[in-house]
């Protein structure tokens, strides 16, 4: 016999399962959040604004880039465009998750879209692909994403406090490149990814002193184009194979 408590129990089980799935990833998120908070206040961003950026933007990579550009006095339009490009991958995440969330109400989709990050996507898509669509699977997604959001807010606050307490003579500029290197190196798999990173790096160095942060923006666009071109070249058929087919 079905009881009214059964659906609530299932939702709770999915929610807790999502949190458990996210916990191992939080070990990497925590230092990243603290590094952002410290870097933001040392760059000159007010503590309240640094914390608000974590709550509103909620995107580590784009927050780092945005703070760097703000500190350099880059115009707002360039900052918005750059952060949009950095977070462009989220559109791909949304497209991949859409078949599993189409049945949800608009409020649920908006909430999950706001909470969507790399780590939340990784756990959610794994759950959906393993167990298929489920009436309560979005609670797994929600639990996983909320655990990450909460950790990001807390660690940002810790970083803001630590950064405000650090003397000005202690430069924290190294936090930005080291953090991005820690994110970049593990995902550099395949020749196309390597080509994109190498070419983007060269363009970023060449354009380091370009006005309004356009060097970074150009490096991102050129790097993505190089990665796509390399991927297409690697996937194209060999001439020898075409000749064999014609024979």
Stretches where pLDDT is under 50 for at least 5 consecutive residues are 240-247
Distance between the termini: 68 Å
Largest β-sheet summary:
none
Number of helices: 12
* Helix fraction bin: over 70%
Rg, Cα atoms, Å: 21 Å
Overall 3D form: globular
Can you tell me the number of structural domains? 2
Can you give the mean pLDDT? 81
Number of DSSP strand runs: 0
Structural class: mainly alpha
Strand content: under 5%
N-to-C series of helices and strands: HHHHHHHHHHHH
Q: Please, could you describe this protein's structure?
A:
With 247 residues, the chain is mainly alpha-helical. The protein has two domains: 8-171, no CATH class; 188-247. 80% of the residues lie in helices and 0% in strands. Helix 1 (5-43) runs parallel beside helix 8. The protein is globular. The model is unreliable at 240-247 (pLDDT under 50).
Task: Write a concise keyword list for the protein shown above.
single chain, mainly alpha, 247 residues, disordered C terminus, 2 domains
Structure summarized in a few sentences:
With 247 residues, the protein is mainly α.
Strand and helix layout:
Blueprint: H1 5-43, H2 47-56, H3 60-71, H4 76-86, H5 89-101, H6 106-115, H7 118-131, H8 137-165, H9 175-187, H10 191-206, H11 214-235, H12 239-246
Helix pairs in contact: 1-3, 1-7, 1-8, 2-8, 3-4, 4-11, 5-7, 7-8, 10-11
